Amino acid sequence: MTRRHEPRPQIRVVHGHRRAYVIAGRGPALLLLHGLGCDHTTWSPVVKRLARRFTVIAPDLLGHGGSDKPRADYSLGGYANGMRDLLALLSIERATVVGHSFGGGIAMQFAYQFPQYTERLMLVAPGGLGREVNPVLRALTLPGASHALAVAASPPVLALANFVGSRASAAKVPGASDLLGALSVLAGKHDAAERDAFLHVLRAVVDWRGQVVTMNDRAYLTANMPTCVLWGGKDTVIPVTHADAARRAMPSARVELLPAAGHFPHEEFPDRFASILTDFVRTTAPSVYDQNLWRSLLRQGRSADPAPSAGTVALPLQRRPARAMGAAAPAGA
Of 167, 176, 188, 221, which has fewest CB within 10 angstroms of its CB? Predict the structure, then answer.
């Protein structure tokens, strides 16, 4: 159910496929990319706050939410192409790209493929910085996972799991910080088309050993791209130790830790998240694409001298009330 006062989803057809998105506010553009198995509603706690200063675009990625779920290209590059074309249809020339989890991998790929359209990057617990990922996601890449997922996503089983999960979360059971978010990814997966799309995307980036894609080999290209990396200290989906990998791979990036947050800091602490993102945009100049500089970075490769590290900032938090059970939230790399 759409939340009260939330922007109503709109539809654009891109390359013959329906793409759902919400757009709100005025000002510099923010493109918010959700994680695996989610949709635009994961950003609902922050859209209204951000729309006071920005034009906020939050799409449902192909295969997710209200967008079509065809047999199609679900690669990171394919998603980046789709986002470029959606922005073109909306007459938005450049944006600060914000990606959560799997969406962080898309954001990084977008900046790599289309640096001329990217003003800044904000990566929220992104995939692609190491192999480690929650073992449940690894298990879902194995044969037979579709049948197991169908059972787990059936309304009676999901209702019981949500009841238990909400109690565990309220009681602050160790390891339960991401339980409701992980369960909410099951919503809708009893539908075969949505379940198949989810598993198709998952298997493109994860196998039984962990994450199979990496941004580490090209992360040096962010040397002249304002970049902020944000991680929750209680993340149970992608470990917070990957924040250190981000600092090594992108020494010029601003890295911030929210010690009390799990994998979904934008949902758990929307005020702090919006404040960090707003401050990041306010205090950095948008990247300007320079073909000669880009060529120079490519020639130097990973041996290029890094800019001074921005360091890691740990921030105290005040938790917001628990979200409604129907709120969607991704759990993915």
Answer: 167
